[in-house]
Amino acid sequence: MNDPYLDPHSGILRNNFGITNQRELDSREADAVGVRSVMIQLNPVPGNFDSKHLKAIHEYLFQDVYDWAGTFRTISLSKRDHVGGQVTHFSPPDVIEAELQAVFGELAQDNFLRSLPRKVFANKMAQLFSEMNRIHPFREGNGRAQRQFVRQLAQGSYKPHFDVVSKERLVTASIASAHGDNSMLERMMDEITDTERIQPLKKLIAFFGRERYEWNDRYIATTTPGQRYRGIFAQAAGDDFFFYDDQNRIVVGKTSDLPTAARANDKIDFEAS
Q: Assign residue 168 a region: left if phi > 0, alpha if psi is -120 to 50, beta otherwise?
């Protein structure tokens, strides 16, 4: 399929910098959008939480990088989850607008998720995020536009702290959601709107930063109350500790939940409180 968004010689996205090297484009894009992401949180893009508003947010974020920023894609789009994995097919371009209108119409009927208990709010946010991801209206930059959209939606309510969500966790949850399992997104949204669970993640990420450990490439979460865990103890810091579970994910738990004191590389088995 011919992709008009790509430079025919380099095979990477046409961009305002004239860059034809993927690694260089990734770096310049991250820098430019990173600055815009900070600015948009200080001065949110006004709108009515509809498709026009989503376009405006995308345009603001990517205006320095792509001349098509803020416009919906005109070609079909799909992504393979991983090498040899399933292929996720996103909504065809001719139905993007109609499907988003349906999603945002339901959001309006829900009074834009105002005055809801936190857990209900988190579950509905996960559903909204899942639907926008399933549609994937832009050629590039969908996740970053979606995160800013839901941040603005949550203002005055329960702020979602995406800064404690690793890229690996977000991708894993999004892939599961695209294949019909929304539980990981629901858990993620529940966790990052819960102040008590956000703080241990912030502490761990700060620790990884000091150690120059690339945490963004790892799945990182906190324990869920009532759930049983088995894994390998890594390190404790005051009231919290982290360990590797049976899927080699990094999980933060409460030190008080451990039945006995543990040392690095000890096997642990406990129920989270």
A: alpha
Asked whether residue 125 is assigned to any structural domain, the reply reads: yes
Give yes or no: residues 83 and 191 share one domain.
Answer: yes
Same domain, 94 and 160: yes
| Residue 48 shares a structural domain with residue 182 | yes
Residue 235 has pLDDT above 80, yes or no: yes
Which residues face 232 on adjacent strands?
Answer: 244, 267
With a CB cutoff of 8 Å and minimum separation 6, the contacts of 71 are 55, 59, 138
Q: What is the C-alpha to C-alpha distance for residues 16 and 123, in angstroms, rounded to an integer?
A: 38
pTM, rounded to two decimals:
0.92
pLDDT digit string (tens) for 113-153? 999 999 999 999 999 999 999 999 999 999 999 999 999 99
Residues 231 and 178 in one domain: no
Instruction: State yes or no: pLDDT of 233 exceeds 70.
Output: yes
CB 75 within 8 A of CB 1: yes
Q: Which pLDDT belongs to residue 84?
A: 62
Backbone angles phi, psi at 258, to 5 degrees: -75, 130
Which domain, by its residues, includes 154?
Answer: 41-196
SS3 letters across 112-141: HHCCCCHHHHHHHHHHHHHHHHHHCCCCCC
Residue 21 corresponds to which tokens in the numbers above? 């090297």
Q: How many angstroms from the chain centroid is the CA of residue 251?
A: 17
Helix axis angle, 22-42 relative to 51-62, nearest 10°? 120
Q: What is the pLDDT of residues 70-98, one digit of tens each?
A: 999 999 999 877 656 788 899 999 999 99
Contact 185, 177 (CB under 8 A): yes
